[in-house]
Amino acid sequence: MIRVSQPVTGPxxxxxxxxxxxxxxxxxxxxxxxxxxxLAGYLGAGERPVVCVNSGTAALHLALACLDLAPxxxxxxxxxxxxxxxxxxxxxxxxxxxxxxxxxxxLLDLDDAQRRITPRTKxxxxxxxxxxxxxxxxxxxxxxxRGLRVVEDAAHAFGSSFGGKKVGAQGDLVCFSFDSLKNITxxxxxxxxxxxxxxxRRAGLMRGLGMERPQATQGGPPSRSAYDVVTQxxxxxxxxxxxxxxxxxLKKAPAFFARRQAIAKRxxxxxxxxxxxxxxxxxxDRVVPFLYTLRxxxxxxxxxxxxxxxxxxxxxxxxxxxxxxxxxxxxxxxPLPVTEKVCGQILTLPMHCAxxxxxxxxxxxxVQACLA
Length: 372
Ligand SMILES: *Cc1c(COP(=O)(O)O)cnc(C)c1O
Known about the structure:
Layout: H1 11-22, H2 30-43, E1 50-53, H3 56-65, E2 74-78, H4 83-91, E3 95-99, H5 110-115, E4 121-124, H6 136-145, E5 149-153, E6 161-162, E7 165-166, E8 173-177, E9 190-193, H7 197-207, E10 211-212, E11 228-229, H8 240-271, E12 277-279, E13 292-296, H9 301-310, H10 326-329, H11 337-343, E14 346-349, H12 357-371
Parallel strand pairs: 2-3, 2-4, 4-5, 5-8
Antiparallel strand pairs: 1-9, 6-7, 8-9, 10-11, 12-13, 13-14
Bound molecules: pyridoxal-5'-phosphate.
Protein backbone atom coordinates (compact mmCIF):
# COMPACT_ATOMS: atom_id res chain seq x y z
CA MET A 1 0.00 0.00 0.00
CA ILE A 2 1.29 3.48 -0.88
CA ARG A 3 0.28 5.45 2.19
CA VAL A 4 -1.22 8.90 1.96
CA SER A 5 1.16 10.17 4.60
CA GLN A 6 3.92 8.73 6.73
CA PRO A 7 6.83 9.93 8.83
CA VAL A 8 10.40 9.47 7.68
CA THR A 9 12.99 8.82 10.37
CA GLY A 10 16.43 7.24 10.24
CA PRO A 11 19.43 6.25 12.33
CA UNK A 12 19.81 9.86 13.47
CA UNK A 13 16.47 9.85 15.33
CA UNK A 14 17.26 6.41 16.75
CA UNK A 15 20.63 7.63 18.04
CA UNK A 16 18.98 10.72 19.52
CA UNK A 17 16.43 8.60 21.36
CA UNK A 18 19.19 6.34 22.63
CA UNK A 19 21.07 9.37 23.98
CA UNK A 20 17.85 10.57 25.57
CA UNK A 21 17.12 7.25 27.22
CA UNK A 22 20.62 7.10 28.64
CA UNK A 23 19.95 10.31 30.58
CA UNK A 24 18.21 9.90 33.91
CA UNK A 25 15.31 12.24 33.13
CA UNK A 26 12.84 12.13 30.24
CA UNK A 27 10.50 15.01 31.07
CA UNK A 28 10.84 18.65 30.13
CA UNK A 29 14.31 20.12 30.51
CA UNK A 30 17.35 21.17 28.48
CA UNK A 31 16.53 19.30 25.26
CA UNK A 32 13.14 21.00 25.02
CA UNK A 33 14.78 24.39 25.57
CA UNK A 34 17.26 23.56 22.83
CA UNK A 35 14.46 22.65 20.43
CA UNK A 36 12.67 25.90 21.23
CA UNK A 37 15.83 27.85 20.39
CA UNK A 38 16.41 25.84 17.23
CA LEU A 39 12.82 26.36 16.06
CA ALA A 40 13.04 30.11 16.73
CA GLY A 41 16.26 30.21 14.72
CA TYR A 42 14.82 28.23 11.83
CA LEU A 43 11.68 30.37 11.70
CA GLY A 44 13.58 33.65 12.04
CA ALA A 45 11.25 34.40 14.93
CA GLY A 46 13.54 37.06 16.45
CA GLU A 47 11.95 38.41 19.62
CA ARG A 48 8.98 36.06 19.28
CA PRO A 49 9.53 33.21 21.78
CA VAL A 50 8.71 29.61 20.91
CA VAL A 51 7.01 27.44 23.56
CA CYS A 52 7.05 23.70 22.89
CA VAL A 53 4.18 21.51 24.07
CA ASN A 54 3.12 17.89 23.66
CA SER A 55 0.74 18.38 20.71
CA GLY A 56 -0.47 20.88 18.17
CA THR A 57 -3.86 20.73 19.85
CA ALA A 58 -2.24 21.75 23.15
CA ALA A 59 -0.53 24.66 21.35
CA LEU A 60 -3.91 25.89 20.08
CA HIS A 61 -5.46 25.39 23.53
CA LEU A 62 -2.70 27.40 25.23
CA ALA A 63 -2.79 30.13 22.58
CA LEU A 64 -6.51 30.57 23.19
CA ALA A 65 -5.98 30.43 26.97
CA CYS A 66 -3.60 33.39 26.59
CA LEU A 67 -6.45 35.48 25.14
CA ASP A 68 -8.44 35.50 28.41
CA LEU A 69 -11.72 34.70 26.68
CA ALA A 70 -14.90 34.69 28.75
CA PRO A 71 -17.32 31.74 28.55
CA UNK A 72 -19.37 32.09 25.38
CA UNK A 73 -16.92 34.38 23.60
CA UNK A 74 -16.76 33.51 19.93
CA UNK A 75 -13.88 32.46 17.72
CA UNK A 76 -14.26 32.48 13.93
CA UNK A 77 -12.84 29.31 12.39
CA UNK A 78 -13.31 27.58 9.04
CA UNK A 79 -15.51 24.51 9.33
CA UNK A 80 -13.07 22.79 6.97
CA UNK A 81 -10.28 21.90 9.38
CA UNK A 82 -9.09 19.10 11.62
CA UNK A 83 -11.37 18.80 14.64
CA UNK A 84 -8.43 19.81 16.87
CA UNK A 85 -9.07 23.46 15.96
CA UNK A 86 -12.65 23.18 17.24
CA UNK A 87 -11.80 21.16 20.35
CA UNK A 88 -9.17 23.70 21.38
CA UNK A 89 -11.77 26.48 21.19
CA UNK A 90 -14.37 24.62 23.25
CA UNK A 91 -11.67 23.51 25.71
CA UNK A 92 -11.26 27.12 26.87
CA UNK A 93 -15.04 27.59 27.12
CA UNK A 94 -15.33 29.64 23.94
CA UNK A 95 -17.67 29.01 21.02
CA UNK A 96 -16.35 28.00 17.60
CA UNK A 97 -18.23 29.88 14.88
CA UNK A 98 -18.05 27.83 11.69
CA UNK A 99 -17.12 29.90 8.64
CA UNK A 100 -16.94 29.17 4.95
CA UNK A 101 -13.77 28.63 2.99
CA UNK A 102 -13.13 29.99 -0.46
CA UNK A 103 -13.87 27.39 -3.07
CA UNK A 104 -10.56 27.73 -4.92
CA UNK A 105 -7.90 27.68 -2.18
CA UNK A 106 -9.93 26.27 0.76
CA LEU A 107 -8.82 29.13 3.05
CA LEU A 108 -11.04 31.14 5.39
CA ASP A 109 -13.51 33.32 3.48
CA LEU A 110 -13.27 36.70 5.20
CA ASP A 111 -16.45 38.02 3.57
CA ASP A 112 -18.37 35.12 5.05
CA ALA A 113 -16.59 35.50 8.41
CA GLN A 114 -17.61 39.16 8.43
CA ARG A 115 -21.27 38.17 8.30
CA ARG A 116 -20.84 35.93 11.35
CA ILE A 117 -19.28 38.57 13.61
CA THR A 118 -21.28 39.42 16.76
CA PRO A 119 -20.45 41.52 19.83
CA ARG A 120 -19.05 38.30 21.39
CA THR A 121 -16.53 37.70 18.60
CA LYS A 122 -13.03 38.00 20.08
CA UNK A 123 -10.69 36.11 17.81
CA UNK A 124 -10.19 34.47 14.44
CA UNK A 125 -8.41 31.18 13.82
CA UNK A 126 -7.30 30.92 10.19
CA UNK A 127 -6.21 27.43 9.12
CA UNK A 128 -3.31 27.27 6.65
CA UNK A 129 -4.87 24.44 4.69
CA UNK A 130 -2.37 22.07 3.09
CA UNK A 131 0.43 24.48 4.05
CA UNK A 132 -0.84 27.64 2.39
CA UNK A 133 -0.92 30.68 4.72
CA UNK A 134 -2.72 32.74 2.09
CA UNK A 135 -2.53 36.52 2.32
CA UNK A 136 -1.43 37.01 5.93
CA UNK A 137 -1.11 40.81 5.53
CA UNK A 138 -4.71 41.00 4.38
CA UNK A 139 -5.87 38.73 7.19
CA UNK A 140 -4.09 40.72 9.92
CA UNK A 141 -5.34 44.04 8.55
CA UNK A 142 -8.89 42.64 8.53
CA UNK A 143 -8.56 41.37 12.12
CA UNK A 144 -6.99 44.62 13.36
CA UNK A 145 -9.82 46.69 11.89
CA ARG A 146 -12.27 44.60 13.88
CA GLY A 147 -10.24 44.42 17.09
CA LEU A 148 -9.85 40.63 16.84
CA ARG A 149 -6.93 38.56 18.09
CA VAL A 150 -5.48 36.00 15.70
CA VAL A 151 -4.52 32.42 16.52
CA GLU A 152 -3.04 30.88 13.38
CA ASP A 153 -3.60 27.14 13.08
CA ALA A 154 -0.36 26.62 11.20
CA ALA A 155 -0.28 22.87 11.86
CA HIS A 156 0.07 22.30 8.10
CA ALA A 157 2.41 25.17 7.41
CA PHE A 158 5.70 24.54 9.18
CA GLY A 159 8.33 25.73 6.68
CA SER A 160 5.96 27.73 4.46
CA SER A 161 6.64 31.44 3.89
CA PHE A 162 4.74 34.62 3.36
CA GLY A 163 6.27 37.93 2.28
CA GLY A 164 9.76 36.47 2.43
CA LYS A 165 9.35 35.33 6.05
CA LYS A 166 8.53 31.94 7.48
CA VAL A 167 5.04 31.42 8.90
CA GLY A 168 5.48 32.12 12.63
CA ALA A 169 8.12 34.81 12.15
CA GLN A 170 5.47 37.49 12.37
CA GLY A 171 1.90 37.92 13.55
CA ASP A 172 0.02 37.20 16.77
CA LEU A 173 -0.10 33.62 18.13
CA VAL A 174 1.04 30.94 15.68
CA CYS A 175 0.60 27.22 16.41
CA PHE A 176 2.46 24.31 14.85
CA SER A 177 2.02 20.55 15.15
CA PHE A 178 4.82 18.00 15.08
CA ASP A 179 2.61 14.94 15.30
CA SER A 180 3.56 11.76 13.53
CA LEU A 181 2.44 12.85 10.06
CA LYS A 182 3.27 16.56 9.95
CA ASN A 183 6.03 18.21 7.86
CA ILE A 184 8.51 17.40 10.63
CA THR A 185 7.70 15.22 13.62
CA UNK A 186 8.70 14.94 17.26
CA UNK A 187 6.75 11.66 17.47
CA UNK A 188 4.08 13.82 19.06
CA UNK A 189 4.51 17.50 19.76
CA UNK A 190 3.60 21.05 18.99
CA UNK A 191 4.81 24.60 19.41
CA UNK A 192 3.33 27.99 19.99
CA UNK A 193 5.09 31.12 18.71
CA UNK A 194 4.19 34.01 21.00
CA UNK A 195 4.02 37.71 20.15
CA UNK A 196 6.05 38.75 23.22
CA UNK A 197 7.98 37.49 26.24
CA UNK A 198 5.11 38.05 28.66
CA UNK A 199 2.72 35.85 26.65
CA UNK A 200 5.43 33.19 26.42
CA ARG A 201 5.91 33.30 30.20
CA ARG A 202 2.17 32.79 30.71
CA ALA A 203 2.01 29.99 28.15
CA GLY A 204 5.04 28.39 29.79
CA LEU A 205 3.33 28.42 33.18
CA MET A 206 0.07 27.05 31.83
CA ARG A 207 1.77 24.16 30.03
CA GLY A 208 3.18 23.02 33.39
CA LEU A 209 0.07 22.94 35.60
CA GLY A 210 0.51 26.59 36.50
CA MET A 211 3.48 25.75 38.71
CA GLU A 212 6.09 28.42 39.25
CA ARG A 213 9.39 27.14 40.58
CA PRO A 214 13.12 27.77 40.54
CA GLN A 215 15.04 27.36 37.28
CA ALA A 216 15.73 23.76 36.18
CA THR A 217 19.29 22.66 36.89
CA GLN A 218 21.32 22.25 33.74
CA GLY A 219 20.25 19.09 31.95
CA GLY A 220 18.68 17.59 35.07
CA PRO A 221 15.21 17.48 36.54
CA PRO A 222 13.60 20.71 37.70
CA SER A 223 13.87 21.44 41.38
CA ARG A 224 10.97 19.85 43.23
CA SER A 225 11.76 21.55 46.49
CA ALA A 226 9.63 24.67 46.22
CA TYR A 227 6.90 25.83 43.94
CA ASP A 228 3.81 27.95 43.94
CA VAL A 229 0.74 27.48 41.74
CA VAL A 230 -0.25 30.76 40.18
CA THR A 231 -2.70 30.00 37.37
CA GLN A 232 -4.96 27.35 35.84
CA UNK A 233 -2.70 25.10 33.83
CA UNK A 234 -2.49 21.78 32.05
CA UNK A 235 -0.04 18.92 31.68
CA UNK A 236 1.07 20.04 28.22
CA UNK A 237 4.85 20.04 28.50
CA UNK A 238 6.97 18.28 25.88
CA UNK A 239 9.23 15.38 26.82
CA UNK A 240 12.99 15.59 26.19
CA UNK A 241 12.66 12.42 24.09
CA UNK A 242 10.25 14.09 21.71
CA UNK A 243 12.45 17.19 21.59
CA UNK A 244 15.49 15.10 20.66
CA UNK A 245 13.58 13.56 17.75
CA UNK A 246 12.43 17.03 16.70
CA UNK A 247 15.97 18.40 16.72
CA UNK A 248 17.05 15.68 14.27
CA UNK A 249 14.00 16.25 12.08
CA LEU A 250 14.67 19.98 12.00
CA LYS A 251 18.13 19.32 10.55
CA LYS A 252 16.46 17.38 7.75
CA ALA A 253 13.75 19.99 7.16
CA PRO A 254 15.36 21.66 4.12
CA ALA A 255 15.74 18.33 2.33
CA PHE A 256 12.26 17.14 3.38
CA PHE A 257 10.63 20.36 2.24
CA ALA A 258 12.41 20.45 -1.12
CA ARG A 259 11.21 16.89 -1.75
CA ARG A 260 7.61 17.73 -0.82
CA GLN A 261 7.68 20.76 -3.10
CA ALA A 262 9.11 18.73 -5.98
CA ILE A 263 6.39 16.09 -5.66
CA ALA A 264 3.65 18.73 -5.55
CA LYS A 265 5.04 20.51 -8.60
CA ARG A 266 5.15 17.24 -10.50
CA UNK A 267 1.54 16.44 -9.51
CA UNK A 268 0.41 19.93 -10.55
CA UNK A 269 2.09 19.58 -13.91
CA UNK A 270 0.65 16.12 -14.52
CA UNK A 271 -2.90 16.96 -13.42
CA UNK A 272 -3.24 20.35 -15.10
CA UNK A 273 -4.95 18.83 -18.15
CA UNK A 274 -6.85 15.96 -16.55
CA UNK A 275 -10.56 16.55 -17.09
CA UNK A 276 -12.68 16.85 -13.96
CA UNK A 277 -9.87 17.85 -11.60
CA UNK A 278 -9.48 21.26 -10.02
CA UNK A 279 -6.08 21.98 -8.46
CA UNK A 280 -5.47 24.24 -5.49
CA UNK A 281 -3.75 27.45 -6.62
CA UNK A 282 -0.46 27.00 -4.80
CA UNK A 283 2.95 28.59 -5.15
CA UNK A 284 5.22 25.71 -4.22
CA ASP A 285 8.25 27.98 -4.07
CA ARG A 286 6.88 29.48 -0.85
CA VAL A 287 4.43 26.81 0.33
CA VAL A 288 5.68 23.54 1.79
CA PRO A 289 2.79 21.17 1.08
CA PHE A 290 1.62 19.09 4.03
CA LEU A 291 -1.21 17.66 1.96
CA TYR A 292 -1.61 17.37 -1.77
CA THR A 293 -5.34 17.91 -2.04
CA LEU A 294 -7.34 18.49 -5.19
CA ARG A 295 -11.01 18.72 -5.99
CA UNK A 296 -12.62 15.95 -8.01
CA UNK A 297 -15.55 17.38 -9.93
CA UNK A 298 -18.51 15.80 -11.71
CA UNK A 299 -19.27 13.49 -8.76
CA UNK A 300 -16.41 11.19 -9.63
CA UNK A 301 -14.56 11.18 -6.31
CA UNK A 302 -15.85 7.82 -5.05
CA UNK A 303 -14.89 6.20 -8.35
CA UNK A 304 -11.36 7.64 -8.13
CA UNK A 305 -10.95 6.58 -4.49
CA UNK A 306 -12.02 3.03 -5.38
CA UNK A 307 -9.77 2.88 -8.44
CA UNK A 308 -6.74 4.04 -6.46
CA UNK A 309 -7.50 1.66 -3.59
CA UNK A 310 -7.56 -1.24 -6.05
CA UNK A 311 -4.07 -0.15 -7.09
CA UNK A 312 -2.97 -0.11 -3.42
CA UNK A 313 -2.87 3.68 -3.33
CA UNK A 314 -4.31 5.16 -0.15
CA UNK A 315 -6.16 8.49 -0.27
CA UNK A 316 -7.90 10.61 2.35
CA UNK A 317 -10.59 13.23 2.70
CA UNK A 318 -9.21 16.13 4.75
CA UNK A 319 -11.62 16.86 6.34
CA UNK A 320 -15.28 16.20 7.04
CA UNK A 321 -16.91 19.56 7.80
CA UNK A 322 -16.86 20.18 11.55
CA UNK A 323 -20.24 21.90 11.69
CA UNK A 324 -21.80 18.56 10.72
CA UNK A 325 -20.29 16.59 13.63
CA UNK A 326 -22.80 15.60 16.33
CA UNK A 327 -21.08 17.73 18.95
CA UNK A 328 -21.19 20.93 16.90
CA UNK A 329 -24.47 20.61 15.01
CA UNK A 330 -26.28 22.62 17.65
CA UNK A 331 -23.91 25.54 17.11
CA UNK A 332 -24.52 25.97 13.40
CA UNK A 333 -25.90 29.33 12.41
CA UNK A 334 -26.15 30.41 8.79
CA PRO A 335 -25.73 27.59 6.24
CA LEU A 336 -22.31 26.66 4.83
CA PRO A 337 -23.08 25.61 1.26
CA VAL A 338 -19.57 26.12 -0.12
CA THR A 339 -17.99 24.04 2.63
CA GLU A 340 -20.53 21.27 2.17
CA LYS A 341 -19.93 21.27 -1.57
CA VAL A 342 -16.12 21.17 -1.41
CA CYS A 343 -16.21 18.51 1.33
CA GLY A 344 -17.82 16.28 -1.29
CA GLN A 345 -15.04 17.02 -3.79
CA ILE A 346 -11.74 17.16 -1.95
CA LEU A 347 -9.33 14.27 -2.17
CA THR A 348 -5.85 14.01 -0.71
CA LEU A 349 -3.25 12.02 -2.65
CA PRO A 350 -0.10 10.53 -1.12
CA MET A 351 2.40 13.23 -0.09
CA HIS A 352 5.43 12.36 2.03
CA CYS A 353 9.17 12.00 1.80
CA ALA A 354 9.20 8.21 1.56
CA UNK A 355 7.55 8.36 -1.89
CA UNK A 356 9.88 7.38 -4.72
CA UNK A 357 9.77 9.03 -8.15
CA UNK A 358 8.42 5.73 -9.49
CA UNK A 359 5.59 5.74 -6.98
CA UNK A 360 4.72 9.35 -7.83
CA UNK A 361 4.58 8.46 -11.53
CA UNK A 362 2.48 5.39 -10.75
CA UNK A 363 -0.02 7.47 -8.78
CA UNK A 364 -0.20 10.02 -11.60
CA UNK A 365 -0.75 7.31 -14.21
CA UNK A 366 -3.53 5.72 -12.14
CA VAL A 367 -5.34 9.03 -11.63
CA GLN A 368 -5.09 9.69 -15.36
CA ALA A 369 -6.25 6.19 -16.22
CA CYS A 370 -9.34 6.56 -14.05
CA LEU A 371 -10.40 10.02 -15.19
CA ALA A 372 -9.15 10.32 -18.77
C1 LIG B 1 -2.56 18.09 13.07
C2 LIG B 1 -3.45 19.25 13.21
C3 LIG B 1 -3.72 19.87 14.44
C4 LIG B 1 -3.35 19.30 15.77
O1 LIG B 1 -2.10 18.84 15.93
P1 LIG B 1 -1.80 17.56 16.85
O2 LIG B 1 -0.31 17.69 17.05
O3 LIG B 1 -2.18 16.35 16.08
O4 LIG B 1 -2.54 17.73 18.12
C5 LIG B 1 -4.48 21.01 14.45
N1 LIG B 1 -4.99 21.52 13.33
C6 LIG B 1 -4.78 20.97 12.13
C7 LIG B 1 -5.37 21.60 10.92
C8 LIG B 1 -4.03 19.80 12.03
O5 LIG B 1 -3.85 19.21 10.84
